[in-house]
Design goal:
Elongation Factor Tu (Ef-tu), domain 3, alpha+beta, Serine Threonine Protein Phosphatase 5, Tetratricopeptide repeat, 791 residues, 15% strand
């Protein structure tokens, strides 16, 4: 991921460059950001849901069935929209001298009464159990540290608006490659709509240098033709979004179809795309001409991707065709990705029936530029540039040229980027706005587009019953389009949501109807929709999963190698479920071969990841280690940091129960490096709870091989990070080991203190098993001789 440096104002550029920009219809944007481009509709709940439990002995955070967060309990009189709060551990806190740590922070969005308020979270530690956190009201979100999650802009270099100095505390984990969002400041009394993170978003920056308590953060600048956002100011909030490898994005190709009989229209389209990219140094994309002739208005436009040979690099296919509109020839365009996308989250489907760019004889340059901007955003999404894509789309939504269907398509993609970063409530807020605007304009297509996204968001928010009901209504709204691909997609999603809500009967009916409507497979659509049902069924409905897998196998026999590779992967997972590990390994090996043949690098990485897991289950640590390294290399090359974190996390299991009597193997020699990488990768994600687990694993390994000073240091760090995130189980076991180390060193006083702390933390963990482990471990085991390669 590359954060491109350039002058922040078009007015600073030379006249020759200005002449080029005039070709793509741009001007010089100045001044601060306004609400231009943001819907003026109120969609947040006018009252809390009736099923929200308002009873609470303290001020507490609670999720409601509408997917949003609320604070319930006695509210202070001065609490109003914009008031800052922190959510703290609410159970019995075992330490008198250490205050309860904050685990989340945010602002009040709307106060309903003295007992309940709607709130929005700005940041929370990953995978924190947020429900029932105890609320404390703060002067600002910087009142106390949330790890690397929150900070402030300390200074902005006047000579270089791109360089920000941000304060991010003195806790470990901040490193080059961290990406932060810069948000405008909030004051009590701020209007609810102005508290939306999307409206507060000013910039995105990447840490390039880190010091003890601050970092230099290089601001990413979007395309110069779009209106500028507000300038970053000292005191603005910064919030951690994600960690990246800090590498330039992979080169991408934008293929453009033929337009029979309208070469001039094609030239204008290609020229507009090239001009847009030529002044966007961060694009790393090239426009290439294709021989394909397509219908941009085809509801099944996405199937054109199957007509293109995928070479392993990101490709976006742009199709164009001419159609009569009120007797005049208009140019319609559409686009779709070729091959798999990298990175997390949803990807917006191609606009149904395409986008009308206007009359061919008088093609609007701004309309072409707007389309080029949306396609460029899609390229970023396919390359896994989540934060960059979000900021790019944010700039598009301030551009009046991005209008009509293209606009709600861009907003949908924008909402999905927030969701990909874990901000599902923010994404839901945006989608509800889209539906409200669509209703005002009686735009059925925009309504359906937003409604489909809302189903997925409810699912991510674990509101499975709400997701199921919304999916059912969405399917009913699409029934007139039966049996086109939009209806089939809605049908498949309904089946998934039924399974998530624990309703297998509707899902079984969905599978039957999909097969009935797609006797020829509907391209590869049927396989795609059934794959969603397969994953949703999981181990809870093995019979349905097996039935779906049987259909997928039959479909794949007539499909391409990538389709069969996916099926072999599913078969491998099924074999793992049945503990038929040899068959699972064979299936994953075949999946890897087929993915390599199809040049699906993401698929190769996934197959190798599952081969690694299978060989661990087969107790073949060296082979597992080698496949894990290959998967790491693939995901690093793809720029998928989250996938590498997942692999490092699972690799720690290779060293959890080593046999010191066995002959030395190379994987053991890499133990320090792998365990250290597991710790650092979790810190890079800001995941202190999992970092504490990784530290405990590393400390246990050092203890096992007799390296007590290193072990002691790791257990001490584990205690700090574990307490920071209320992981009392890990803290208890760390104190146990610290006590045993002290006893081995003859320090009985420290031994007694550590054992008392271990018992105290075991009680706080409310896990009887932890206490049993402590009691049974007080007699030290006999340690075998340690292989010299581990020392």
């Amino acid at each position: 991921m590359r954060f491109h440096t350039r002058a922040p104002r078009l007015c600073r550029l030379g006249l020759g460059f200005l002449a080029l920009l005039l070709l793509i219809g741009t001007g010089c944007a100045t001044g601060s950001a306004t609400d231009t481009g943001w819907p003026q509709v109120a969609v947040m709940p006018q009252a809390p849901p009736s099923d929200l439990d308002l009873s609470s002995s303290s001020t507490t955070l609670r999720r409601a069935s509408d997917g949003f967060w609320y604070v319930v309990g006695a509210l202070d009189a001065e609490v109003t929209a914009g008031s800052a709060f922190m959510g703290r551990f609410s159970g019995e806190w075992p330490l008198k001298d250490l205050p309860r740590p904050p685990l989340a922070a945010g602002h009040v969005l709307h106060r309903y009464s003295d007992q309940v308020a709607l709130v929005g979270l700005t940041y929370s530690f990953p995978e924190t159990e947020l429900s029932s956190l105890e609320i404390t009201w703060e002067r600002s979100l910087q009142a106390e540290s949330l790890g690397k999650g929150l900070g402030t802009v300390m200074s902005v270099k006047l000579a270089d608006q791109n360089s920000l100095k941000i304060s991010i505390g003195d806790e470990a984990g901040v490193q080059a490659g961290d990406i932060y969002a810069v948000l405008g400041r909030v004051a009590p009394g701020t209007a609810t709509k102005s508290l939306q993170l999307s409206r507060r978003l000013v910039a995105v920056c990447m840490a390039s240098q880190t010091e003890e308590t601050n970092a230099t953060c290089r601001q990413w600048n979007g395309h110069i033709s779009h209106p500028a956002s507000a300038l970053v100011n000292e005191g603005d909030e910064v919030v951690f979004l994600e960690h990246s490898f800090g590498k330039p994005p992979r080169d991408a190709t934008i293929l453009v179809s033929q337009i029979e009989g309208h070469q001039s229209a094609r030239d204008a389209l290609v020229g507009g795309l090239k001009n847009y990219l030529s002044v966007f140094g961060a694009s790393n994309a090239t426009v290439v001409l294709s021989d394909l002739v397509v219908e941009a208005t085809d509801i099944d436009f996405h199937r054109n991707s199957q007509r293109i040979d995928y070479e392993g690099s990101p490709v976006m296919f742009v199709g164009a065709s001419v159609h009569l509109v009120e007797g005049r020839e208009h140019l319609f365009v559409n686009y779709t990705g070729v091959g798999p996308a990298t990175g997390p989250g949803m990807v917006a489907a191609p606009p149904e029936h395409g986008i009308d760019l206007g009359a061919v004889k008088n093609l609007n340059a701004d309309a072409v530029r707007a389309f080029a901007a949306v396609v460029t955003g899609a390229v970023m999404v396919y390359r896994g540039q989540t934060s960059e894509a979000m900021m790019h789309l944010h700039s598009l939504l301030r551009d009046k040229a991005v209008a009509g269907p293209l606009r709600w398509h861009a907003r949908d993609q924008f909402a999905m980027r927030w969701a990909a970063l874990g901000y599902y409530e923010e994404a839901l807020w945006l989608v509800l706005e889209d539906e409200a605007v669509a209703a005002e304009r009686d735009d059925e297509q925009a309504t359906l587009n937003a409604m489909g996204t809302r189903v997925r968001l409810y699912d991510y928010l674990t509101q499975h019953e709400t997701a199921y009901e919304t999916a059912r209504n969405y399917l009913k709204a699409r029934v007139d389009q039966k049996p086109n691909s939009a209806y089939l997609s809605a049908l498949g999603m309904y089946g998934e949501m039924a399974l998530r809500a624990g309703k297998p009967a509707p899902a079984q009916e969905v599978v039957r109807e999909l097969r009935e409507l797609c006797p020829d497979g509907c391209g590869s659509d049927l396989s795609s929709f059934l794959a969603g049902v397969f994953w949703a069924a999981g181990t809870e409905d093995e019979a349905l999963q097996d039935e779906v897998l049987g259909v997928l196998v039959e479909l794949a026999r007539d499909g391409d190698s990538a389709q069969m590779a996916s099926v072999r992967l599913y078969q491998g997972l099924t074999f793992m479920r049945e503990r038929e590990l040899e068959q699972a390994l064979i299936a994953f090996l075949e999946s890897e071969r087929l993915y390599e043949q199809a040049r699906y690098r993401q698929g190769v990485a996934r197959a190798r990841y599952f081969m690694f897991l299978t060989q661990m289950a087969r107790e073949e640590p060296q082979d597992a280690f080698e496949h894990a390294l290959k998967a790491l290399d693939h995901n690093t090359d793809l720029g998928d940091f989250e996938a590498t974190v997942r692999i490092y996390e699972r690799m720690t299991q290779l060293y959890a129960d080593i046999d010191l009597s066995a002959p030395p193997r190379p994987y053991l020699g890499a133990a320090r490096r792998m365990l250290g990488a597991a710790v650092q990768s979790q810190l890079a994600m800001g995941h202190y709870a999992k970092a504490s687990e990784a530290m405990f694993g590393m400390g246990s390994f050092f203890f096992k091989i007799g390296s007590l000073p290193e072990s002691q240091l790791m257990f001490q760090q584990t205690v700090w990070y574990g307490l920071r995130t209320a992981r009392f189980d890990v803290v208890a076991l760390s104190h146990l080991f610290l006590g045993i180390i002290a006893r081995n060193q003859g320090d009985m006083e420290t031994f007694q203190d550590e054992i008392q702390r271990a018992m105290l933390m075991a009680e706080a963990a409310q896990d009887p098993g932890i206490r049993e482990v402590i009691e049974s471990a007080l007699n030290p085991p006999v340690v075998d001789d340690v292989p010299t390669q581990l020392l």
